[in-house]
Amino acid sequence: METGLKDRVAIVAASSQGIGRATAEAFAAEGCRVAICARDKESLNAAADKIRAQHNTEVLAEPFDVTDPAAVRDFVNAVVQRFGSADICVTNAGGPPAKGFLATTMDEWKRAVDANFMSVVYFAHQVIPHMQKKKWGRILTITSIATKQPVPDLVYSNAVRTAVVGLVKSLANEFGKDGVLVNNVAPGYTATDRLKQLAKARATASGKTEDEVLAAFAADSPLKRLGEPGEIADTIVWLASDRASYITGQTILVDGGVYKGM
Length: 262
Known about the structure:
The chain is about 50% helix and about 15% strand. It is an alpha/beta fold and about 260 residues long. Strands 3-2-1-4-5-6-7 form a 7-stranded parallel sheet, with helices on both faces. It is globular. The longest helix has 29 residues, at about 105-135. The protein has helices spanning about 20-30, 40-55, 70-85, 105-135, 155-175, 195-205, 210-220, 230-240; strands at about 10, 35-40, 60-65, 90, 135-140, 180-185, 250-255. Strand 4, helix 4 and strand 5 (about 135-140) form a beta-alpha-beta unit. The chain starts with 8 loop residues before the first strand and ends in an 8-residue tail after the last strand. Helix 6 (about 195-205) crosses helix 7 (about 210-220).
């Protein structure tokens, strides 16, 4: 299927592992030039080296924290300086800790807002002017099924990621006239380190093993399995492509049917 993505420039945040890394690899496979970032320099460079070798494409890798607005600004400027544009921006950040509400702290609430909401604001502020100049752009946020259906023990995510949906809708409404499409991808239970952390927390609280908790996650899906990072990445690439040119302001669930609403 022709995606129209060859030679586009794709920024993918938090892309040293998991869904972010799979997404960067998927864009590279479509012929995009890729800019990736994460806090851990070693794992980020390993991801960049693999993408370059496997897909023979240009990769810019910069280690920094997406909660730092100046660092986001400098990164986007570096991307545009090197590649000439910033066509696609996939925002992503590690999820906040798994806790019930009374165990939360004010410091953790602030970190959750900074990492999972304000980082989207920072990237959007920087990339939208470049997209407006070309009359073409894609902003894709990665959140969670929690935007549709609260997940037990994930009160930070349930609250903060839902705010991202409001931002996505607002940006889609304001910048659609400029050819900028803004959508949200909400994964369900996906085989990542993040899910293992949630399984560990639930295992500790319930007396079950982590494997039992993971098996319960899989059983909750009509497909009776966990998702794979590459399956979420494929959805993101499709939304960025010319094949999805009339879709904006939407939350696309990639959850194996876990969400039971209409």
